[in-house]
Amino acid sequence: MLDLFPATAAIEGDELTLGGMTASALAAEFGTPLVVLDEQTLVARARAYRAAAPDALIAYGTKAFPNVAVLRLLADEGLGADVSTLGELEFALAAGVPAERIVVHGNNKSDAELARAAEVGAGLVVLDAPDEVERAATAGIRRVLLRVTPGIEVDTHASIRTGHAGSKFGFTPETAIAALAHARELGLEAAGLHVHLGSQLVDASAGWASIAWLAGFASVCERETGWSPAVVDLGGGLAIRHVEDDPDPSIEDFVAQILDRVQRGFDAHDLAPPQLVLEPGRSVVGPAGVTLYRVGVVKQAADGTRWAAIDGGMSDNPRPQLYDARYTALLANRASDGPTATYSVAGKHCESGDVLIRRVALADPRRGDLLAVPATGAYTLAMASNYNGVPRPAAVLVRDGQARLIRRRESVDDLLAVEVGRDEGRSG
Ligand SMILES: Cc1ncc(COP(=O)(O)O)c(C=O)c1O
Q1: What is the pLDDT of residues 46-64, one digit of tens each?
Q2: Do residues 255 and 291 both lie within one domain?
Q3: Relative to the CA of 283, which ligand 1 atom is closest?
Q4: Can you tell me whether residue 306 is helix, strand or coil?
Q5: Which of 251, 280, 309 is the last residue of a domain?
Q6: Contact indicator for 144, 124 with CB cutoff of 8 Å
Q7: Residue 127 belongs to what domain range?
Q8: E strands, 185-235, where?
Q9: Which of 43, 108, 193, 343 is 20 to 30 A from 224, comparing alpha carbons?
Q10: Where do the DSSP E strands lie in 285-364?
Q11: Span of 3-17, 154-168, 259-273 with lowest mean pLDDT
Q12: Which of 85, 164, 199, 282 best tests ligand 1's pocket when mutated (most atoms within 8 Å of CB)?
């Protein structure tokens, strides 16, 4: 179980420690729910990408965990940022990510988003639809990629597949060729092509098929238009382990295979090897994150289900509801106690479906215990909501026995602050 936790996780006495701090001390100082990111794991995973592909641009998939401190840490490691909205772009800029390392996405970019990308000189803007060509040129964008949809199905949840034939993302191959010609007529620098098949891809073979497909498509472009891509952006997608029976794909093997297949694919069509861009999100930040919750109600239902309720749930991690995601957990303040029974972990929201973990063996959880859920750094807080008027949790980075607050906890006052007319009807 401990191997699902970040690299610095240990059990000392009865306590789970992360980055040299006990879970109990973290919860006491910052409250719960709390997203704890282990800096050492985060940096090690960023370095693994950089070391495996030193000539590539590694643009962190900001959507996985949009946070200024994290973006800054990753920028210091030489990473850029893949952003998909104006908000994410501003996060990257606030973190000081150099503009030339910013890749701007979006399947429906607004004029304001295009204008801001042009204004700050974002390194690449990934065009996603025919009407974006002209709008990008008008906004003053200079260097673009075209996102192409290869029509490849992948083995992941339907909601995070993006490269299939019916996808809302990207150009069909035919429209991409026309758009390339149009972009060049308008004076845009068409630097290359982008493909992203989906996220949490456990079976990498679809990824290899997409590289072969892309090389073939590049050769069609060359034959028909005399243009071939100088840059190829293969998006993100590498899966991570959430529970013990999940496979644990390695960044090094994944990237080595990509480099080899791009080289062979382009060689086979006599095309010059392109510069590579990768956009990993989940595989950088996911395994670095642990969420700490406080256990409240513990009870047994008529059918025998043992419920342990926590002080968060679908508002801080909607992945179980969205993707049938599975998690496991440990009682962080009694981490050396062996499990006594199987429990279901319920959130505090008014939905029967607000169940964080369907089945997990726990050591007799009691009110006040701390529940630690590993592999929760990606697409959890990033997708959080205020459902049921629940403020979103805080996040901290831990390292060498120190914790640094990188996102403060929201308060109910924060939620009320956007309510118009909130004081009418208040007495006193
Ligand atoms: C275009 C693009 N790039 C990168 C990513 C990051 O993917 P992941 O977090 O699976 O690495 C995504 C996420 O779906 C994406 O849509």
Answers
A1: 999 999 999 999 999 999 9
A2: no
A3: 11
A4: strand
A5: 280
A6: yes
A7: 105-280
A8: 189-194, 231-233
A9: 108
A10: 289-300, 306-310, 330-331, 341-346, 355-362
A11: 154-168
A12: 199
Q: Is residue 97 part of a domain?
A: no
pLDDT tens per residue across span 157-214 = 766 566 677 889 999 999 999 999 999 999 999 999 999 888 888 887 888 889 999 9
Q: What pLDDT, on a 0 to 100 scale, did the predictor assign at position 150?
A: 87
pLDDT of residue 414: 97
Domain boundary among 225, 246, 280: 280
Pairing label, strands 189-194, 231-233: parallel
Least confident of 119-123, 155-159, 329-333: 155-159
Distance, CA of 44 to CA of 59 (rounded, Å) = 16
Q: What is the mean pLDDT of the chain?
A: 95
Q: Is 221 part of any domain?
A: yes
Between the CA of 233 and the centroid of ligand 1 the distance, in Å, is 11
Instruction: Give the nearest ligand 1 atom to 239 CA.
Output: 10
CB atoms within 10 A of CB 113: 22
What the block records as the tokens of 239 is 């899966």
Instruction: Provide the domain count of the chain.
Output: 2
| Residue 148 φ/ψ, nearest 5 degrees | -110, 145
Tokens of 391: 């403020």
Same domain, 133 and 263: yes
Mean pLDDT confidence for 373-383: 98
List ligand 1's pocket residues with C-beta within 6 A.
61, 63-64, 82, 105, 162, 196, 199, 235-238, 279-283
Cis status of the peptide bond prior to 33, with omega within 30 of 0: yes
Same domain, 274 and 168: yes
- Nearest-atom index, ligand 1, CA of 198: 14
Same domain, 264 and 297: no
